[in-house]
Amino acid sequence: MKRFVRENGLALGFGLIFVLALVGQSFAGHAAFNDEQVSAQLEPIGYLAYVTSSSFAADVAENWQSEYLQFFLYIGATIWLVQRGSPESKELGDEGPQSDAEQRVGRYAGPDSPRSAAAEGLRQVLYSNSLLIAMGTIFVLSWLAQSVAGVAAFDEQQITDLERPVTWAEYLLEPDFWNRTLQNWQSEFLAVGSMVALSIYLRQRGSPESKPVGASHAQTGT
User: Fold this and answer.
1) What is the Cα 136 distance to its own chain's centre?
2) Are residues 64 and 144 both part of a single domain?
3) Is the dihedral of CA 182, 184, 189, 191 positive or negative?
4) pTM exceeds cut of 0.90
5) Structural domain includes residue 182
6) 27 part of a folded domain
7) Largest CB tally within 10 Å, which of 26, 110, 181, 194?
């Protein structure tokens, strides 16, 4: 067990703080939701009713989709775009998907390479792009979940305000949907851009996300 925890510490650590943050969000969101209910002279709801509500689902999904969009775009962008001096970038001149020899695929695969890397044809193509495909799929599913839960929450508020509910297609054109979406997207893009730029000049000793402390500012892809 100790060995398993040590070898998977990063995944387990983030998994734990994810669960704690999600639970914390559920309690805080429940309290905030009931405050709004009381202000609107409506009955408060129980905790279980809240965590299974469209309101909670929309809040969670809108954050998930923006995170996976960030990684989807970043993984795709770093294939072709480089940044001089950033450890997050490939070396200048290495733009593109690289050769089979560099990627150790097909006849260049080693004995310890995944079987799909040594395969030919579609199987190899899919595996060669599997991380990008997975991130893109999770983003689309999260975005879809956000839109479905969001329209349900929006229509609940419309009915409370004695206004006409909208369809899913109509909700996609509503300012409420795009306000929820874009406020998350812009923060993710800012965070990624800041990481790329700041990692050129700033260091964190011991982190693989940073260049060695004594590395030149111009050193790229270290």
Assistant:
1) 10
2) yes
3) positive
4) no
5) yes
6) yes
7) 181
Q: What is the pLDDT of residues 62-121, one digit of tens each?
A: 889 999 999 999 999 999 999 999 988 988 888 999 999 999 999 999 999 999 999 999
Given the structure tokens 């790229």, which residue do they identify? 220
Q: List the chain residues with pLDDT less than 70.
A: none
Report the domain count for the chain: 2
Full DSSP string of 98-125: --HHHHT-GGG--TTS-HHHH--THHHH
Residue type for position 93: G
Residue entry with tokens 């030919």: 120
Of 98, 128, 135, 133, give the one whose Cα is nearest residue 113.
128
Q: Which pLDDT belongs to residue 212?
A: 87
One domain, residues 82 and 180: yes
Q: CA 66, CA 26: separation in Å to the nearest integer?
A: 19
Q: What is the pLDDT of residue 24?
A: 96
Handedness of CA 40, 41, 42, 46 (dihedral sign): positive
Same domain, 184 and 142: yes
Q: Residue 158, SS3?
A: helix
Query: What 3-state class would DSSP assign to 27?
Result: helix
Residues 4 and 91 grouped into a single domain: no
Q: Which domain holds residue 34?
A: 1-52
What's residue 183's pLDDT? 87
**Contact at 8 Å (CB) between 75 and 88?**
no
Per-residue pLDDT, 25: 95
